[in-house]
Amino acid sequence: MKRTIVITGGAGFIGSHVVRLFVNKYPEYHIINLDKLTYAGNLANLKDIEDRPNYEFVKMDICDFDAFYQLMQDKKVDGIIHLAAESHVDRSIKDPFTFAQTNVMGTLSLLQAAKLYWESLPEKYEGKRFYHISTDEVYGALELTHPEGIEPPFTTTASSAEHHLAYGDKFFLETTKYNPHSPYSASKASSDHFVRAFHDTYGMPVVVTNCSNSRRS
Question: Is 136 a catalytic residue?
C-alpha cells in the first residue's frame, strides 16, 4: 500500500530540503508539499522535483481546519511532518497575534484533523505519525557562567565544546524545563504542549524535535 506523507511549510528553506529528500529517497511514497506561500515560501526552491510522479504541491493555510481535514480524507494521509510556522523573534515582537494564530491554532488544526481522520480508520493510529518540528528557543537561554571561556574574537577553528564553555556548564536536554522569552518561542512552546497532549490524551503517535542553529563568529 502506497504511503502518503504531508510536509507542511515545504516551500520554505528547511522544508524544501525535507521535501526533496523524501521525494528522492522514497519514490514509493506520495509526498504532498503543503504551503501557504507567504514571505517564507518559494516554489522555486523545488524546481528540480516539481515534475516527479510522487510529488504534489497544495497551497493551503494550516489554520483552515475544514480544508485540511478534507485533504486528510481525500489523500488518505498516513503521516504529517509539520514545519510550517511563523518565524523570527523580531517579527513576533511586532506581531504576536499572528504567531499565536499560526503556530498554536495552526498546529491544533492539523492535530484535530489528523485525530478525526485516523480514528475513523479500521487500523486507527497503526502506521501513522505526527512529526512536529519545534525550536530550541522554547528552553530559553543558557546561563552565562564562563564568559572567560574563550578569548575573543572567536576563531573558526575553535571547537563547539570551546564555544559552549564561554556560556555555561550544561547543554539543553530533552528534560530541560521550558522557559520561552519571546512571543515566537512562547507560541512554539504552546504548540509543543498541544502535540504532547494529543499523545497523552488520545494516544496519537507523535515525535517532537527541538532543532537549533549553529553559529560561529
Answer: yes
